[in-house]
Model the fold of this input.
Amino acid sequence: MTTAAAGPAAARPRVLRVVRGLENLVLALSLAAIAILPVAEMLLRSAGAAGIPGASTITQHLVLVVGMAGGAIAARERRMLALSTVENFLTGRWRSGAHLVTLALASGVAAWLAVAGWMFVADEREFPRDLAWGVPLWVVQLAIPAGFGLVAARLAWSAAETLRGRFLALSIAAGVIALGAFGPADPAGLVTPALVLLGLATLLGAPIFVTLGGAALILFWGAGEPIASIPIDHYRLVTNPSLASIPLFTLAGYFLAEGGASRRLLALFQAAFAGFRGGPALVTVLVCAFFTTFTGASGVTVLALGGLLLPILLSSGYRERPALGLVTGASSLGMLFPPCLPIVLYAIVAQQPMGDMFLGGLLPGCVLVAVTVAWGVRAGPPAGPRAPLDLARARRAAWDAKWELMLPVVAVGALFSGFATPVEAAGITALFAGFTQVVVHRDIAPVRGVARVLGECGLVIGGVLLILGVALAFTNWLVTADVPSVLLEGVTARVESKWAFLLLLNLFLLLVGCLMDVYSAIVVVVPLVVPLGEHYGIHPIHLGIVFLANLELGYLTPPVGMNLFLASYRLGKPLVEVYRAVLPVLVVLIVGVLAITYLPALSTWLPELLGSSR
Done:
C-alpha cells in the first residue's frame, strides 16, 4: 500500500515539471519566432522574393501568445508586478492574512477575466476567420482565457502554503465569481463598495493588472455593459502591428544584461573618463543610460550594474550617500533615448510617428544626463591631480566593446534608413545583440543560456502586456463615460495659459508617476492628456516627451518608485536610506524636466529638421 500511495505522489512533481517545461518552451519559441520572422520577411523582400504568407499577422498573434504565456509564468514564479509594498511592513498573522485575502480576490478577478475571454472566443467561433495557413483565428485567441485561467489558479495556490489556506483562498475567489454571476439584477449599487475593496487589495499588494482589469470589470458590470469588451480591447492592443517592437527591443537589452556587455562598457568609459574630475560620475551615468535604453527602464539596469558601480564610486572618494543616490538616480536615465520601450508604447497609444518620437527624445535625454553628471561631479570628492589619459588602454577597451557600441547604430540606422519597418528594425537589433553575446563573445551558452534569456525576457514582457491589455479596457470605459470631454471642459474653464497648463501637467504627471507604473500610465493617461495638449496648441512630440520625462522620475519618487526598491535589494541598503540618498538627484532631475517643459525646441527641433513631424 505504501508503494501504491507513493506512485501518484511521486508522479505529481513530474507532471508539474512537464507542464512548466512546455510553458517555458512555448514562451521561448514564440519570442524567438517574433524576432526571426520579421527579419526573414525583410531579407526576402529585399531579394525580390515572395515573402512568408501571413508573416506579419503571425508575428502579431505570437505577441499575444508571449503575453499570456509570460503572464502565466510570472504568476507561477510569483513575480507579478504590483504597485504597493504595504504587505512587507506587516508581520505574523496580519501579513499572512492580508496576503491570502489579497491574492484570493486577485484570483477571482483573473477568473472573471478568463470568463470574459471565453465569451470573446465563443463569439469569434460563430463567424470563424483564418489566421494563416488554414489555422482558425479563434484557436490562437484561446490563449486569452487559458492564460487568465492559469493566472487565477496560480494566484489562489500561492495565497497560502497550507491546503486549508488554499481552500479558503479558492472559496473567496469562488465568492467573487458567484457575486458577478448571481448578484443583484441591478448591480450599480455595488460598484462603489467593490471599487473600495479592490483599492484595499491594491494597497495590500494585488498585481497591477488585477487593479486595472478589476476596475474595468466592476465598471462595465455596474453599467450593464458586456464584459467581453475587455478581452476585445486586450486583443486589439496586444496584436497592434507595431507592438512587436516592444518585446524585441527588450530582448536586445536582456542579451546585453545577461552577457558581458556591462563589464566591457564599464571598462571603456573608465579608460576614457576616469582621469577627469567627476570621471566616475560620468562613467556611472553613461553606462546606466546606455543600459536603460535597451532594457526598457524595467529596473534591470540597477540590478545589473549597481553592484559594479557603487564600489567604483566609493573607491574614488565618494561618500556613501551621494554614491548610493547617483547609482540609483542614474538607473532611470535613458528612457528618452531610442529605442526605449516607453517611447515605442507612447508612439503607439498617442498615434505619433515612432521615428519622430525617437528624434524628439534625444536632446531632452541629453539634458537629463547632463544635469545628473553635473550633480555627480559636485557631490564627488575635491579635484586631485589629474591622471593622464592612457590612450592604449582606451583603444583596447573600445575595441573590446565595439559590438556593444554598434548596437545603437544598428537600431537607429535600420529604423531611419527606410530599409526596415519598426518591427523589422527591432528584430534586427535583438538578433544582433544575441549574435554578439552568444557567438562573438560567447558570454551566453548557445542553448541553455539563450533559453534562459528568452524565458526571463518573456516573463517580464508577459507581465507588462497583461497590464497594457486590461489598462486599455479601463481607458475605453473612461472614454465611454465621456471623461476626456469633462476633463477638457473643466481644465480649459480654469486654466487659460499654455504655460500654466504645462506646470499643472508636470505636477499631475509626477503624482501619476508615484502611483502608477509607466506602462499602465501611458495607456490610461495619454488618451486623457492628448486632447488637452491639442487645445492648448502644444506640439504633440513635445507633449509626449514631457509626459515621458515626468514618468521617468516616477522610478525614483518615494515611496513607490520601482528603482528605489530594486536598489535597496541589490545594494543591501535600508529603503529609508535609499530614499534620503536619491532625493537630491530627484530635485536636480525635476529642474531638468522643467527645462524640457518650457523649452519646446529641445523636443521639436530634430523632428522638424529630420523627421516627418508637422
User: Anything to note?
Assistant: The chain has two domains: 15-238, 245-610. The mean pLDDT is 86. Residues 467 and 510 are 20 Å apart (CA to CA).
